[in-house]
Design a protein that fits this description.
Blueprint lengths: L2 E4 L1 E4 L3 E7 L4 E2 H11 L23 E4 L2 E2 L4 H10 L6 E4 L5 H13 L6 E3 L3 H6 L5 E4 L4 E4 L1
Parallel strand pairs: 3-5, 4-6, 5-7, 7-8
Antiparallel strand pairs: 1-10, 2-8, 3-9, 9-10
Length: about 150
């Protein structure tokens, strides 16, 4: 049975991908640092402080997160991941996105060929419901369908 959630569109687009879920904050720089420096094609999460994602491939996944945390370089790290084609299929946040992560997603949407929809304010029910491996579909209007 499908469940539908509606959020705020930060970066428009459509996506269909397998969910990868973190219940802790997502440190963008720590998560992408090793894949960016070492050229990891699977883009495995390098943030050892995030047990939900650590060492799991993130490329092409629907990242389901509460929020981003960490350094002021997070937006630039997110933009760089998109510019190099290592981005997730989409980023879906239960809480409001922070301005630094939003800036990276918006710059990537306009300055790269990456298709990475970003939706926030999906609510706590979204993060409580979605599990690793579920299929996620994102529509242009911020509708997120979880199967």
């Amino acid at each position: 049975m499908s469940k539908v959630f509606k959020g705020r569109v930060i970066a428009a687009g459509t996506a269909k991908a397998e969910a990868l879920v973190s219940h802790g904050g997502f440190n963008t720089l720590a998560s992408y640092q090793t894949p960016m420096l070492l050229g990891d094609k699977q883009v495995k999460c390098s943030d050892q402080n995030n047990p939900d994602l650590y060492k799991k491939p993130m490329r092409g996944k629907a990242l389901c997160l509460p929020e981003t945390i960490g350094s002021t370089t997070g937006g630039m790290a997110l933009y760089t991941v998109c510019a190099t084609g290592k981005q997730p299929a989409c980023m879906l946040f239960s809480k409001p996105i922070d301005t630094l992560a939003a800036s990276g997603a918006i710059l990537a949407a306009f300055w790269t060929d990456a298709n990475m929809p970003v939706i926030d304010r999906l609510g706590e029910e979204f993060l409580a419901y979605v599990q690793d491996g579920m299929m996620i579909e994102v529509a242009e209007d911020g509708t997120v369908t979880v199967d």
